[in-house]
Structure formats: C-alpha cells, structure tokens
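Pilot study result, target chain (272 residues):
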Amino acid sequence: MMIFSLENYRIHKKRLKQLKFKEKDLDSDEIAELVDKLTKPVVKNVLPKFKIKNINEIEKDLRMAEWDQKMTVHQFIALQLITRVLGVLVFILLFNASKFLAIVWGAVLFFSVSFLMKNSAKNRRDRLMMQFPDFIRITQGYLSAGLPFVQAVEESIRFVGEDWQPILQRFVVEAELSDINTALNGIREEVDVFEVKEFLSLVNLIIEQGGDAKEGFESQAEKIQQMLYDSMMAKIQRRRIMGTLIQAPLLLCNIAVLGLPTFDAMLNFKAM
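Predicted structure:
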C-alpha cells in the first residue's frame, strides 16, 4: 500500500509539473488579506444574527467570477453589507448639498460589490461559452486520431482558450488520480454554464452505462454544437431587437427634424 501511495504521489507531482499550474497571484493574496481585515468584525459580530438563504448561489457566482480565491461567501456578504451602509451614509451626507450626487454616489456604493461580482461571473460564463466549441472540435480531432479520451483532452489544452486551460488541467490530474466520471463531475461543478453541464452529463451517462468515452463525446458533440449555434442566433436576435429599440427614438427625432421645414411651410401657407 505504501509503494502504491508513493507511486500515485509521484504521478500527481509529475502531472502538476507537466501541466504547469499558474501560481497564485500576489495581488490576490493582498486583496484577500485586505478583505479579511475589513470584514472580520462584521463576520464575527453581525452575520451570526442574520439567516442567509442563498449561500449556494453566491458560492457558485464567486467561483465563476474567480473571487473565491479572494474571499469566502461570508466575507462577500459582509463586504456587501459594509458598502451598502456606506452608500446610505453618503446619500444622507450629500443630500442637502446635491441631490443628484447623493443619488449617484449612494447607488454606486450600495450596488458596487454585487454588480462587480455578477458582471465578472457573467463575463466569464460568456467567455467559457464562446471557447467551448473550440474545446469540442479540438478534442474530437484527437479522438478521431485514435488517442484515449484523457490524453486527447490533455493534448487539446494548449490550443483551447485561456479560461478553459486550468479547468482541463485539473480534469487531467483528477482523471489520472481517480477516474473519468469524478473528473467530469468536477468540471460540471466548476463551470456553471447550462450547455456545458448538459454536454458533460450526457457523456458521463454514456460512460456509466458501459459505453466508451470517445463514443459518448463524439455522439454528443454535434448536438451541443447545434445548441450553441441556436443560442448564438438567439443572442444575435436579442441584440438586434435591443439595437432597434435604442435607435427608434433617434429615428423619430430625425424624422421630426426632416419634417420641420414641411410643417413650417404648411403653417405659413395657411397664414397666407
């Protein structure tokens, strides 16, 4: 048992060295330390008095926004509470001097933390979604060449987008140390994107039913690519509608400006 444990440990260390995980950024450590100092009194004295319901959703968003390295769920809630209190205080202090500035700065401080986190999570979801077809196409190419599933994913890491690279690196390590099902479940938990979760669930289901990972991947790749195409077309259509709604007032203003000479001529004609 000791020999096999040492062998697994060596494989793990070798794999980590090969995949070259990025070391934790020093800025993240400094931000984490600052957040800890700011939120520690609130986490210790205030939060225990409240019942927090949406902890799982906040945890998912923090992980997707990659804020989980800087703060915990309770620290995020504490930071959110601090900024909201500051927003109310700034609104009260500036209200007599300038109502406009009071509303602007009060709203900025009140919603800043939630907005930044949600926006970061949304942007990362969009990037993962945009880079997902490349991952499918490249991995499918290696599978067609006869490579095993895990090796095909490992070879595709250098060609996929930057957001997918650390995710696939962790998948390869987990697949080597445990099994493919556990590694696929790890990606599903990390990537909070519906299309990705559905694709991996279908591949995982085929593997659990005794099928080959290669066959499961290839059988679902075409369906997911069609789903991604439909999703992209729906997004383009929504942007077209939004563009039309934004441009409609400008178009009405242009029509009004162009029609003013005619309207003025009609008034002058009646006066004559």
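One observation from the pilot: Residues 213-271 form the longest helix (59 residues). A full batch analysis is planned for the follow-on phase.
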